[in-house]
């Protein structure tokens, strides 16, 4: 069960730098999620851990030992790919047992007939049968063992692919977007199954996804990547509550964190449409700031009741909750003109309010729920816990 350390790990394809000086440690037993948009280098990183892709520079350590040049087999990893390919002519049982059978009969690879006979005999070996049935039970495939892949649903096939990768009892699990081919309901179900598997086996998981919900629900820690660079390494709570920069703030959360560029004059915050209000908590230094607040931390109030006048632009009713997209408006202009750019500020409230589009409203917040960013660097500016309002 290795602890993985990356020291200035870099990867280039020709002159195209895909991973640039990646530094991180993945601890033993962690469920580490690599989260980032498509093309940011997640799969490349995973392939380097597995030994399927060469490291251009830097070091990869397994429990402190340099593993850059280790053969994939030496690393004891199970790799689950996004596009799983099952053998259509084999039963679920034979598909799952396949890696065990092949491990035992490597030397017959080049003799197809001997290989086929040996494989059939090995399938009956008590050890292989027991291990196959054990992993099948864990993934609730035991009643499907004698079926062929064509007669299974997408989710069941995905579970067979997982079982096949996991049957070897690896020390490190690498999963590359294993759920992206599934429909929403199955994805939710598989998320909890994979989390349960992690608890059961207690080994290190490195899970790649571009889906922030998967990251938030499954990870013990998340590494957020963009363009081959680490943006933040933190727990899901840390990433959500204290995003390191505006990229992370926008990438995690649906709808994402509201980011409003403001100019600070004393305690007053002004937006680009001349709307301004008094902030009642600690403020960071600097004049050009980005005011960040999560949609569930905003209060949605009647016109005139909150500090930020607004107008309803979008109402999304989700049943248990409603997401309302508002335009911040300038009260100087009667609240209907001079809208701030085209950005909407989203508020998330529970229940199903009667709100209508174009209705005038106002928004407000508690000072301690605001996250500040530097408008120039886009990085978070830490501010001490807000003191109560000084009036
Ligand atoms: P992700 O998994 O985050 O979507 P990848 O790691 O697959 O991203 O790819 C990162 C970047 O590396 C992409 O720009 C991709 O085009 C490039 N890339 C990946 N594999 C190769 C390769 N074999 N040759 C050249 N470029 C590659
Ligand atoms: Mg990928």
UniProtKB/TrEMBL annotation:
UniProt topology in membrane: Peripheral membrane protein
Tagged with keyword Iron: no
Sorted UniProt keywords: ATP-binding, Cell membrane, Membrane, Nucleotide-binding, Translocase, Transport
GO MF term list: ABC-type transporter activity; ATP binding; ATP hydrolysis activity
Transmembrane segments: none
Domain spans labelled ABC transporter: 4-252
Annotated protein name in UniProt: Carbohydrate ABC transporter ATP-binding protein (CUT1 family)
